[in-house]
Amino acid sequence: MNLTREQYVRAVFVREDETLQAVRTSITEAGMPSISVASEVGKLLELLVKMTGAKRVLEIGALGGYSGIVLARALPQDGELVSLELLPEYADFAHENLKKAGLGDKVQYRTGEALTSLQQLHEEGQRFDLFFIDADKVNYSNYLDWAIKLANPGAVITADNVLQGDRILNDAEQGENVVAIRAFNEKAAQDPRLDSLLLPFGDGLVVARVN
């Protein structure tokens, strides 16, 4: 049997447990978009939290709680996840899934426009060690700027869906999301405040370190 690269990685390195499988099922049954992170991306996020020793993580885009679980379960005992979500019903749904995973006390949800919540976090003087961006694509560059403002020295910033199903590779593709993600990728690559790389698995993940 011939496997794709993704199938091989998932078969050998990724063990999506019953908790995460249940989240995917619950999202589908609730009629929500089935756009949670790929299992290998989730595994990498978990590793990054552990490897960096991050204590405070900011997630932009909660959906059904899949990424929230992989981030929160990697935190130390005194760690905290702050999750920004546009829709209150999605935030409530995600929180229920984190509670089922035994992680409900590690997460704080803020609902409404993410840019407003980011401004509030800045005004409160909050700082974070790791960021995961997975929300509306047109604001990715804005979210990156805010992440840098809210970052502790050496913080890691990650962003999902940065290949857009490989559409960014085709110059003829000029859809709003594709154009926005091209701009984000170029910004992440060229910003002197960052060391960054695009990892071409899942739908593409940018990983950057704040200098």
Q: Which characteristics define this entry?
A:
211 residues, alpha/beta, seven-stranded mixed beta sheet
Can you characterise this structure?
The chain is of the alpha/beta class and 211 residues long. Helix content is 43%, strand content 21%. It is built from 8 helices and 7 strands. It has helices at 5-12, 18-29, 39-52, 66-73, 88-100, 114-123, 140-149, 176-190; strands at residues 56-60, 80-85, 107-111, 128-133, 151-160, 194-199, 205-210. Strands 3-2-1-4-5-7-6 form a 7-stranded mixed sheet, with helices on both faces. The longest helix has 15 residues, at 176-190.
Secondary-structure map:
Elements: H1 5-12, H2 18-29, H3 39-52, E1 56-60, H4 66-73, E2 80-85, H5 88-100, E3 107-111, H6 114-123, E4 128-133, H7 140-149, E5 151-160, H8 176-190, E6 194-199, E7 205-210
Helix pairs in contact: 3-4, 6-7
Pfam families: Methyltransf_3 (PF01596)
Keywords: Methyltransferase, S-adenosyl-L-methionine, Transferase
Protein name: O-methyltransferase
